[in-house]
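Running this now, will post back.
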Amino acid sequence: MGEYQYRVRELFESQFREWNLARDNYDQLDNVRVRTVSFPGYDISVQFNPGRIISSAAKVDARSIEARPCFLCEQNRPPEQQGVTFGNDYIILINPFPIFRRHLTIVNRGHTPQRIAGNMLTMLLLAESLQDYVLFYNGPQCGASAPDHLHFQAGNRGFLQIEKDQGNPSLCRRVAESGQTEMWLWSGYGRGIMTLKGNDPLALTAAFGRFCERFALTQPDRPEPMLNILASHDDGRWTIHIIPRRVHRPACYFANGESKILLSPASVDIGGVFITPREEDFNKITAEHIMTILGEVCLGEEELTNLTSGVL
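Update: finished.
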């Protein structure tokens, strides 16, 4: 076991002894209800997790952000919350409102906006140091409930459907390679995803940067191009799933009455586990709802194919 994985395991044990709120919320995961919605070649898990209402319903407009203290800044965090330092600029914390059995938030020590530009290499180093976890990044308009403070999250491996789906050649195929870096695209998956694989973190970061520059041209008024990112590391190689977005929240989020589904998709949802904090939404969401939500928030396969041409 690597140094950071050992230290994080110890962190969970100590926090569960000393922080009742966190311990109780992780215990409540035993009561989370799950059901599976099947599609040709893959499944989507749907969870009823009422503890996630804080994140799903978070107000992330500029006025609301300015009006509240930043809950990721050290001075505003609960006194019971302790962490593990990562390098000079980050601290690894347990997330007190978990989705995963082991759910981390990795927070920049400075109050700096949520941006992936200049920080992808850090994400890859975190994935390398925490190989039992999938790292994920939610952009400031793509599910981050703290768009004003740079952070990553991580969850234990084996939870997200995309982890097993990436091995299905009918869903994910290699379309380009340059040196040791490969680009894969997904088809028949209901959402456009580009996956980069390789053993050179600098080459992967450069390829990601080229894609971001191109994608940013299509969203010139955004603080950064809308993205969710999932990254993991195995046997000396990184896998990075890059999910470009077109909108933050689907129409059903803003609907009234029976048409409303309070679901704000972020990396975990698009990775194949839809989190519904309201029981009525858990009960009523259908395959048609899921496809509509993914179609609204994600780019289509053809759009992504055009954007990725020539990235490698």
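Residues 3-308 form a domain with the HIT family, subunit A fold (CATH 3.30.428.70). More later if anyone needs it.
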